[in-house]
Protein 1
Amino acid sequence: MSIYSAAFLNSELSKPTSIFGLRLWVVIGIFVGSSIVLLLFLLSLCLTSRRRNHNHQKLSGPHGGELTPVVSKDIKEIVIPHANYHDQRLIHTVPEIQIDIGKVEHRVVFSDKASSGESSRSNRNEAYNTNSSTSSYGPEVSHLGWGRWYTLRELEVATNGLADENVIGEGGYGIVYYGVLADNTKVAVKNLLNNKGQAEKEFKVEVEAIGRVRHKNLVRLLGYCVEGAYRMLVYEYVDNGNLDQWLHGDVGDVSPLAWDTRMNIILGTAKGLAYLHEGLEPKVVHRDIKSSNILIDHQWNPKVSDFGLAKLLCSERSYVTTRVMGTFGYVAPEYACTGMLTEKSDVFSFGILIMEIISGRTPVDYSRPPGEVNLVDWLKAMVGNRRPEEVVDPKLPEKPASKPLKRILLVALRCVDPDSQKRPKMGHVIHMLEADDLLSRDERRIRREFSNLNQENPLENPAADKMEDKIFHEDNSDRLKVKAAGIVPRRQDADKDI
Ligand SMILES: Nc1ncnc2c1ncn2[C@@H]1O[C@H](COP(=O)(O)OP(=O)(O)OP(=O)(O)O)[C@@H](O)[C@H]1O
């Protein structure tokens, strides 16, 4: 370019324009600059929307993306320090007590750490809204060899995208949804909450403990789902509510639970528990036996559910934990005080459950007069005062005969013996519940012994112990309990289930 044309260009570019009198080169500069900024903005918009679409496609539910949570990788298992399973030394800790009174029953968690026993819908939403950076959606744990691994999509389809209308109930560790699988199987899907690692911990315990369990009085775990932050358990659906609802719900003046039905529920629950304690190797302690964990089918058969708190125990060993969990009113005293966990803790809770079933009262009821708040204390006092007939649920359609009432009360009182060693094993409980003939023969003796019960603490009556030992001796109970609970030899059973 010649010096003349450069001077010409320069003079042309320096001419003022009609846009605020700005020189031409300034206008051109502004135009080029804004175009670049606009271009960059459009480019970033395009990239963001492409990324959103990509995530949406990967996780979208059956009814579009609205219900679809964004998966997070944030959940990490928190290893809670606890006593060695194989170490029977007592570990002394100063437990922190948390009482969640947001639920109908009071969940008590004695913990050496802030724990995560609470549940709320907001937690659920929190889990859903956690930002995602998950790139892989494949299973994080391998298939265990039993049941099925379900994909998140399968379970979303089954539960209408985890719809609110499908919610059956909400426990301490997650929300339970009703669902129908592609093969028309009705299921209950428990979506474990992302509560600081506890959900994952419970998931692993539960999967290992329940996956191999098969018993008509235990809710069957059909499979599980592990995708991103999701931990879901898929159970058989039990179609007639839970015992808590039938005992304490609004059922009118007359309960549909007749005496025989109640006895059947007690016996079935005992069989389910006996299987956990004595039919599995290693044995399983449920740790949260209570009426809301006893599901009922349409034939009024009980099925023990919610093994979330179960801990696998090595045979013949006790387990000392720094983290005591259970539900207020049902927890055995030695477990609450020292963390010492054996299957006898379940036996205690089972004794409370029997009392609840017979009386229709909750284990702790602050709306009652002072002497009646605690179910065990009240019931012991009533039995000690020779007024056992007065403890039965007033909603029962027909009062039970005196003999079976006393029999079941005796079993309940034995189960809640403050001394865990004196509590019967669940197999023995079954034996006692079924030993009608033996009891008939000794009925007169039972009556006599009952009348001798110490009013303060009828359990500490040596005569009653002697009498029961004689009637309900444990020597041949192993054979009977196996027959009664449908338990097959331990190893063989576990292998068969896998
Ligand atoms: N397999 C199932 N079939 C039908 N309903 C179920 C099933 N499992 C659970 N439910 C229902 O969902 C509710 C919540 O169950 P979940 O076991 O999570 O909590 P919970 O027993 O009420 O409380 P917690 O967690 O404190 O033990 C139960 O009360 C029960 O009615």
Protein 2
Amino acid sequence: MNDSVLQELYQVVLGRKSTPREGSYTCYLFDKGLDKILKKVGEECSETIIAAKNGRQEETVGEISDLIYHLMVMMAQQNIPLEAVLEELSRRSQKIGNLKQMKSVDRET
Ligand SMILES: N=c1c2ncn([C@@H]3O[C@H](COP(=O)(O)OP(=O)(O)OP(=O)(O)O)[C@@H](O)[C@H]3O)c2ncn1[C@@H]1O[C@H](COP(=O)(O)O)[C@@H](O)[C@H]1O
């Protein structure tokens, strides 16, 4: 497993957006639209939290995978390239020792 699994999955999702395919769950989500996609992202996020809280590692891995997939559908719907996220993560990785910065952000909320 490497980064290319994420890239391949995103290519499949983009392909479903440009070329509808019968029986495709991804096409079903695109047909339903943004509100449905966001609802699924929210559901999968909550299910991930619950699985982790319950200490169920295998279940948590499954929920994280569902969440990543649904986030990718959301990104495709919003025309956000995967590279934008990978580049942002890469940019952030240039900086370590972020604790103080995060604390000041927390105080503002
Ligand atoms: N990674 C996924 C993936 N993860 C989860 N799911 C689907 O997400 C749905 C979530 O299940 P739920 O019980 O929460 O939802 P549901 O009751 O089935 O339906 P709704 O609540 O959305 O109405 C299931 O139908 C899963 O099959 C996925 N569907 C597709 N993919 C990827 O997308 C590719 C293309 O799939 P199709 O678009 O179906 O061809 C696949 O090869 C996979 O790589």
